[in-house]
Each structure stands twice: as C-alpha cells, then as structure tokens.
Amino acid sequence: MNTTVRDYFDAFNKGDVPGMLACLSDDVEHYVNEGQVRQGKDLFKSFCEHMNRCYREELTEIVTFEAERGTRAAAEFVVNGTYLETDEGLPEATGQKYCLPAGSFFSLEDGQITRVVTYYNLADWKRQVS
C-alpha cells in the first residue's frame, strides 16, 4: 500500500487534520461527495474542521489498491460514525450512529496526494440518521 495513503487514513482516524494536510500537495483537488470541488490545503482544512465539528468518524475494513506505478490509488472502507452537530440542509443531529460503505480515489505526485475523491451513499446515510 502507498505509504502516503496509509498515513492519510491513519491521520483521519486520529482526527489529526495537520497530519492529513501533511499528505497533501498545496494545490490538492478535493472532490467532496455531492458537493463542489475544493482546491488547495486551506479549503481542505476548513472542510475537515467542519466535518470534525459535525461528525466523529472512524474508518475500518480499509482495503487499498495502487496503480500506475504509485501515481494512483483507491480505497474502500466502512465509515463508522456519530452525528454530533446538525449540518446545514441535513437531518437534525441527536448523536445518531451510522455505518456505511464508502470509497476514495487518489492521484499522487512526488509522494503527495494531489487529488482526493470520496463517494458514499448519502441516501443511506440520511435513512440511518433520520
């Protein structure tokens, strides 16, 4: 497994935003599930801070794949979470637990992640927290 991707997931599971940022290029492109593309570490950091305020998540059953001589990677995993604070436009948060499959795709260059794309089933998540 690509060590940068492993470090990224380890930092995610620790809630370590600086650790995640250390894995990213300065101009990283972040494709948010059902959201806008965000470019750059500052927007990625803001997204993570927002997510950590509204959700507590741990990724388990992480399986990674590497291709194109380490310039591409993918992972599938299970998101185990708690909905902490109501997120705008979503159901009210009351500490609901959820568990759903998800996946991420990465582009890498010079040992840093240049693109992160994450997918999960938002309808399933809404059903679990409603």
Provide an overview of this structure:
By secondary structure, the protein is an alpha+beta fold. The chain has a single domain (3-129), classed as Nuclear Transport Factor 2, Chain: A (Roll). The chain is 30% helix and 45% strand. It has four helices and six strands. The chain has helices at 3-14, 17-21, 41-54, 122-129, and strands at residues 24-31, 37-39, 55-67, 72-83, 97-109, 112-120. A six-stranded mixed sheet has the order 2-1-6-5-4-3. Strand 3 and strand 4 form a beta hairpin. The termini are far apart. The mean pLDDT is 95.
Question: Which labels suit this protein?
Answer:
single chain, alpha+beta, Nuclear Transport Factor 2, Chain: A
- Overall spatial form: globular
Q: Percent of residues in beta strands?
A: 35-45%
Count up the helices: 4
Low-confidence spans = none
As a whole number of angstroms, the C-alpha radius of gyration is 14 Å
Structural class: alpha+beta
Strand segment count? 6
Let me know the average pLDDT: 95
What is the name of the CATH class? Alpha Beta
- Kindly report the CATH topology: Nuclear Transport Factor 2, Chain: A
Number of domains: 1
> Percent of residues in helical segments?
25-40%
Order of helices and strands: HHEEHEEEEH
Q: Largest sheet at a glance?
A: 6 strands, mixed
Report the span from N to C terminus. 36 Å
Q: Strands across the major sheet, in which order?
A: 2-1-6-5-4-3
Query: Which second-level CATH architecture applies?
Result: Roll
